[in-house]
Amino acid sequence: MAKPPSSRDFQPHRGEDEAAGDGVRHLWGRLSGRPLKPKLARMMTDVLPTIACVPDEQGQVDLTALFGGTAPDRLWVEVGIGAGEHLAWQATANPDVGLIGAEFFLNGVASAVRHVDDQGLNNVRIMHGDGRVLVEGLPPGSVERAFILHPDPWPKRRHWERRIIQPAMMDALARVIRRGGILRLATDHADYQPWMTRIALAHPCFRWLAQGVDDWRQRPGDWPQTRYEAKAMREGRLPLYLSLERWGD
User: Fold this and answer.
1) What is the dihedral of CA 17, 185, 168, 67, to 10 degrees?
2) What is the C-alpha to C-alpha distance for residues 126 and 186, in angstroms, rounded to an integer?
3) Contact between residue 183 and residue 243 where contact means Cβ atoms under 8 Å apart
4) Alpha-carbon span 178 to 30, nearest angstrom
């Protein structure tokens, strides 16, 4: 296995060795942006209700009911889908996989629903809400692959507890990802890279799959670029890509 990236690889923020927080219930960030155009507004009123993932009163997600009477044998989950390009790409490339994407930003949800509607994707469900709630509501061992790509870095030190990659979130992911399943993480933010690496690699139920430096510097062929990553690269920020396997007890 390749040697994990060190702080020298990422030029981290001073104090990056401070202990991470472990809360998963709080939600921060913008809930909406500019007003939706008519088509996107229609996506929210007419299309989203037909593909919406809504946990029950106990916070649980009934996969059988969600997917029309048959829970998918292969379930992939994306926490924070942005505008939905990655989710739609994976759904198109993997029609035998059921996918659930979660996003609390209204404009991003509307864009993702548009991708699903325009491409006629029947294997996608979307949760308008906090992806951590989605993960906590899924059955144990139900997820084959999970993605958290370019989450909000919350760069100010006083906001580090708001970062989604925390020990408790890794615990929640370890509960729902089946043994042999894959967790993919990415960030283009230099201060978040050592944070994400340290917390993810420290969890006893995940092992890093990298064998060389290209494994965290280059995206695999089945990992499409998002608009956020493209913007980061135009601005000179090089992303970190982590692929981890769920193993252990």
Assistant:
1) 170
2) 21
3) yes
4) 32
Q: What single-letter amino acid sits at 180?
A: G
> How many structural domains are present in the chain?
1
Residue 3 has pLDDT above 50, yes or no: no
- Give domain status of residue 2, yes or no: no
The type of residue at 202 is A
Q: CATH code at 231? A: 3.40.50.150
The residues facing 77 across adjacent strands are 100, 146
Q: Is 152 a catalytic residue?
A: yes
Provide the domain limits for residue 127. 7-246
What kind and span of H or E run contains 102? strand 98-103
Q: Name the active-site residue from 9, 62, 152, 215.
A: 152
pLDDT(14) > 60 = no
Pairing of strands 206-208, 143-149: unpaired
Residues 169 and 134: beta-carbon distance below 8 Å: no
Token couple for 159? 């906001």
**Residue 27 placed within a domain:** yes
Is residue 195 a part of any domain in this protein? yes
Structure tokens belonging to residue 160: 């580090």
**In the predicted model, is pLDDT for residue 138 greater than 80?**
yes
Taking the alpha carbons of 80, 86, 88, 93 in that order, is the dihedral positive or negative? negative
User: What does the alpha-carbon distance between residue 10 and residue 131 come to, in Å, rounded to a whole number?
Assistant: 27
Residues 190, 237: contact at Cβ < 8 Å?
yes
pTM for the whole structure: 0.86
Measure the CA–CA gap between 23 and 85, rounded to whole angstroms. Answer: 29
Residue 29 forms part of a structural domain: yes
